[in-house]
Amino acid sequence: MDISPLQYLLAILAGIVAGIINTLAGSGSAVTLPMLIFLGLDPVSANATNRIGVIVQNVVGIAAFARGGRMQLRAEKDGKHLPENILDADSLRFGLWLTAAGLPGSLIGAYVATLLDKDTMNLAIGSMLVVVLITIFFNPTKWLRERSEVRKERPELLVLILFFAIGIYGGFIQAGVGVFLVTALVLGVGYTIVHANAVKLIFVLALNVVALATFIWLAVEINLWMGALMAVGQSIGAWAAVRFAVTVKDANRWVRYLLIVVVIYSILRFFGLLDLIFGLF
């Protein structure tokens, strides 16, 4: 596949936008997936190729959180509280349990992605995002909590099943998985929205490694050049987004606003309403 200079530019710009959205809120693949299809990839190939940029972006995001001292890898011996913008070791360990639950789900979802009808899935995704949008407006105090309230013991079975299900969805199609993850981590587990985004980076990285390996195993065509272009843009976007999340005052509030915008956009897109609106002009 020949790539023109304009396609290079479009791929990188789409990657930057998606990197920012994915890192702070989720559903950045609602930007990159249509762009990959617009640039000539079929939907299945675009779904697989999209994972390259997501993987690189999340590696950059995790590294940025760690270098900024926002992730504590070892628990404090005296049990003292850390500053509210640092993810403590116990909360991080809890997130790793959730990630492990999502991995087998990702493998299943990636396999199903090569079998199911795209239009049916778009309808299901749009319906789920409507539920997510309602939850964002329903309980704003939990979205804006200043300190994570995560239990120190291992997750309950129902919580692990929930994240296994999110893993299935994320393996099937990346678009929207960050929204579901942040919602589950904030409302269901008790993280602040900034801490939830840190755990989300780890979860999404792991499930996309599994999904990409599954696509390769199933011999799905992957465009490495286009994936690499998206990865460059998404890495830039992820770095900028993490800087915002850990340095800007009231980051929780601004990320929530962004999340609302992204969810509304995604609902319009997955229901086909965005194309309908653009068709009127």
From TrEMBL:
It is found in: Cell membrane; Membrane. It is a multi-pass membrane protein. Keywords: Cell membrane, Membrane, Transmembrane, Transmembrane helix. The chain crosses the membrane at residues 12-41, 94-113, 120-138, 158-189, 201-220, 226-246, 258-280. This is Probable membrane transporter protein. InterPro entries: TM_pro_TauE-like, TSUP/Inactive_protease-like. Belongs to the 4-toluene sulfonate uptake permease (TSUP) (TC 2.A.102) family. It comes from the Bacteria. Its main location: membrane.
